[in-house]
Design brief:
By secondary structure, the chain is an alpha+beta fold. It has two domains: about 30 residues; about 120 residues, Immunoglobulin-like. It is about 20% helix and about 40% strand. Strands 1, 2, 3, 4, 5, 6, 7 and 8 form an eight-stranded mixed β-sheet that branches.
Length: about 170
């Protein structure tokens, strides 16, 4: 069945154009402000880095058990995540990270560091390494859980957004 579509010329009154111009000017001002703030070379939090390390301690997770953050990396860059862990409690972080876009980011390795103390029940750290592959956006998600059936799941979580761009 064919539908007839007709296009009509839009007519604006003087007040209509004035309102439209005002809204457009506000929109352009907001975009320029955001662009200026977000791309300022003096703002280190907006720099894209070659290699980044994110490390969270026991105290960090006590203060914020569900961590969420973001990093900006260049293509071919590396990302290292180091998280506190205490396997004597039965809890551990996921060995394989859940990566939302594996064409942008790839997990290279996962390992446990030796405890810093010889005391029974001493905590340690788990380390993941990643490599950026191409421009884009990906997220990393890890859970601190007891892996057996009936064990506590996601007692702590780690969520990191990774933005990757070309190097200059």
């Amino acid at each position: 069945m064919k539908k007839n579509i007709s296009f009509r010329k839009m007519h604006f009154t003087k007040d209509g154009w004035s309102c439209l111009k005002k809204q457009l000017c506000i929109l352009v001002a907001i975009i320029l402000t955001l662009f200026t703030c977000c791309s300022s070379p003096e703002s280190p939090e907006f720099e894209f880095m070659r290699d980044v390390k994110v490390e969270l301690s026991y105290e960090d997770f006590q203060a914020q058990p569900n961590y969420s953050g973001s990093v900006r990396l260049l293509i071919g860059g590396g990302l290292t995540i180091i998280l506190y862990s205490n396997p004597s409690t039965g809890f551990s972080w996921s060995k394989l990270a859940q990566i939302s876009n594996r064409t942008v980011l790839m997990q290279i390795d996962h390992k446990w560091l030796p405890p810093t103390s010889d005391r029974a029940g001493a905590g340690t750290q788990q380390v993941w390494t990643f490599k950026t592959l191409k421009r884009g956006l990906s997220t990393i998600y890890l859970e601190y859980s007891q892996p057996w059936e009936g064990g506590i799941k996601a007692a702590k979580t780690f969520h990191l957004t990774v933005v990757v761009k070309y190097s200059h």
